[in-house]
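Progress note, sequence design subtask.
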């Protein structure tokens, strides 16, 4: 069912249109009305009608000005012009705005019916097109996953550089260096999460689960240095705090990536020989910060992952001292972030002799912290999200990544990634691409060459720009240009 809005300042004509539309028995769930363009915009923002019939000459804001604003918000809205004037100048501007027809006053039943049937056909056609595009994108994603898998195995089976590069070319990846991260204690969901984060940080991930571990090759279009790799390791460890992450040597030749894998895996095996249950003070401090991050966004699975190291060492003598240290550092972090005093005597009253008592202590601690966060977390998350959006909107034309934005705002990349996904329902990359394509559309309308547009809005290549443009707009830049 669709919604239609009539924007007409003359009551007689407005009521006539409503009566005719309601009598046609077309699939409209609502017929909305407005008396001028400004009122029409307010109603559009609230109810999002699919079809608009707007008079040209109205007080406060005319129909063409209103339609221009509507098209900026929703290009797929079907618009008609209602007027007793048949001026060519109106027709020219209307066509530029995407108006599909005129209805001349006084309007008759057949003209209205013909226009609405045309509009409904166009809406259904667009819906079918979007559904086909969605299916196509799903197939392309499946194909991409298959190519990634093939690329992974070409690296792992000692293929020569040419064969590896052929697979990378299919993914549009140009790599000058790469490094392997070997991550244990994870599942496929976490693997996909990390892959998205690596992409958001500006790198290309090739990954697969192997022997219940993630083998992640991070490829770069420049030669990576040690601080850069260390920073990436920090991003991974912060997001997957309960997992073990080893890093191989950075290599400049693609066929050497297998040696980076062997190096990372060897490190993991060496670490496994050591005592795994004892955590250093620095590890516990990082754990406390991450634990509070999870509490702030009420990520129950994340909280379980953060505390997993403790749940598996219930019989260890070190448990009580480590748990005490974790709680103390969490409370210190609460005070640091919110300037709130907390009960530091909480742990002194706790007794832990078995798993059930440990669970009870943890639950009490959760409740205490969540009471503190209840009044501040919404405000803080919204503040950080707005800051992130403002920073991205001010810098999206530059080569920004999740990492650079997080550093600029002094927050962690994993927290920023979750914040954007939770508030905007899009990943960081999708958010940046949407802004870039919006600007690109404006420049295409101005007649700027596609290659220049791609460069102006921050894309590394015209081919990648075309791919993203098609994904977001539903057509190639050249097809979009032909609409004007």
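Output:
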């Amino acid at each position: 069912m669709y919604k239609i809005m009539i924007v007409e300042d003359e009551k007689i004509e407005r009521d006539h249109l409503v009566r005719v539309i309601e009598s046609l028995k077309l699939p409209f769930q609502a017929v909305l009305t407005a008396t001028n363009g400004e009122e029409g915009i307010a109603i559009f923002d609230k109810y999002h009608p699919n079809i608009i019939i707007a008079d040209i000459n109205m007080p406060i804001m005319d129909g063409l000005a209103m339609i221009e604003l509507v098209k900026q918000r929703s290009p797929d809205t079907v618009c008609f012009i209602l007027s007793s004037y048949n001026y060519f100048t109106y027709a020219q501007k209307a066509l530029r705005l995407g108006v599909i027809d005129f209805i001349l006053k006084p309007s008759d039943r057949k003209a209205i019916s013909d226009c609405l049937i045309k509009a409904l056909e166009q809406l259904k056609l667009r819906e079918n097109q979007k559904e086909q595009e969605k299916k196509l994108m799903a197939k392309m994603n499946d194909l991409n996953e298959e190519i990634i898998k093939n690329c992974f195995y070409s690296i792992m089976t000692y293929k020569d550089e040419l064969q590896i590069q052929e697979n990378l070319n299919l993914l549009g990846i140009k790599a000058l260096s790469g490094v392997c991260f070997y991550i244990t204690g994870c599942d496929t969901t976490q693997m996909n999460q990390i892959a998205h984060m690596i992409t958001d940080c500006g790198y290309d991930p090739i990954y697969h689960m192997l022997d219940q571990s993630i083998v992640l090759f991070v490829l770069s279009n420049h030669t990576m240095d040690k601080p850069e790799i260390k920073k990436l390791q920090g991003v991974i460890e912060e997001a997957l705090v309960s997992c073990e992450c080893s890093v191989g040597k950075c290599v400049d030749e693609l066929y050497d990536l297998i040696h980076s894998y062997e190096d990372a895996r060897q490190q993991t095996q060496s670490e496994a020989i050591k005592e795994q249950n004892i955590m250093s003070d620095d590890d516990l401090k990082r754990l406390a910060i991450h634990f509070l991050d999870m509490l702030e966004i009420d990520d129950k699975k994340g909280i379980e992952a953060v505390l997993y190291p403790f749940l598996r060492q219930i019989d260890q003598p070190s448990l009580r001292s480590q748990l005490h240290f974790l709680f103390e550092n969490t409370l210190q972090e609460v005070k640091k972030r919110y300037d709130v005093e907390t009960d530091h005597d909480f742990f002194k009253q706790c007794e832990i002799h078995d798993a059930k008592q440990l669970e009870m202590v943890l639950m009490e601690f959760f409740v205490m912290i969540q009471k503190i966060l209840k009044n501040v977390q919404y405000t803080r998350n919204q503040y950080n999200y707005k800051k992130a959006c403002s920073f991205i909107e001010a810098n999206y034309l530059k080569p920004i990544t999740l990492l650079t934005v997080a550093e600029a705002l002094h927050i962690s990349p994993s927290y920023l990634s979750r914040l954007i996904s939770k508030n905007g329902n899009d990943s960081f990359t999708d958010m940046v691409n949407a802004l870039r394509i919006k600007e690109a559309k404006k420049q295409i309308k101005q007649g700027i060459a596609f290659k220049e547009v791609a460069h102006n809005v921050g894309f590394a290549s015209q081919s990648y720009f075309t791919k993203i443009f098609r994904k977001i707009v539903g057509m190639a830049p050249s097809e979009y240009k032909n609409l004007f």
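Confidence is low (pLDDT under 50) at residues 273-277. Work on this subtask will continue into the next period as scheduled.
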